């Protein structure tokens, strides 16, 4: 079995969930809900076992800071995007869509069809 290992952990991870597939005739959207934590995404198991690499990375946990969601049908001009953003100062999640900003419960983030996620390395733990 082929396995990849990380040798460095970046300050930010950007994860793209493959939601769209295109064939000769049309674009399809995968509506599967992906389960993920809001915080403490531990990347230690993907880090190389090399002791030198391990020593350089005392922090391996990430916290979600943004979650981009696509709603609607695939294709140009057929869907809309929403973004869930964590505001550190207020310790509050917000949902932004066009000019509308609303408070959001963290539990609601995992129910959306995530498309792109931005994670920040937690150096406090």
List keywords for this structure.
single chain, 125 residues, mainly beta, seven-stranded antiparallel sheet
Q: What would a concise description of this structure say?
A:
This protein is 7% helix and 42% strand. It has 125 residues and is mainly β. A hairpin with a 4-residue loop joins strand 6 (79-87) and strand 7 (92-97).
Helix count, DSSP H or I runs of 4 or more residues: 2
Distance between the termini: 33 Å
Helix content: under 10%
**Proportion in β-strands:** 35-45%
User: What is the approximate shape?
Assistant: flat
Stretches with pLDDT under 50, minimum 5 residues: none
The number of E-state strands comes to: 9
What is the N-to-C order of secondary-structure elements (H for helix, E for strand)?
Answer: EEEEHEEEEHE
Q: What about the largest sheet?
A: 7 strands, antiparallel
The averaged pLDDT comes out at: 87
**In terms of structural class, how would the helical and strand content be classed?**
mainly beta
Taking all Cα atoms into account, the compactness measure Rg is 17 Å
What does it look like?
- The radius of gyration is 17 Å and the shape is flat.
- It has two helices and nine strands.
- Strands 1, 4, 5, 6, 7, 8 and 9 form a seven-stranded antiparallel beta sheet that branches. It has a two-stranded antiparallel ribbon with strand order 2-3.
- The mean pLDDT is 87.
- The relative contact order is 0.27.
- With 125 residues, the chain is mainly beta.
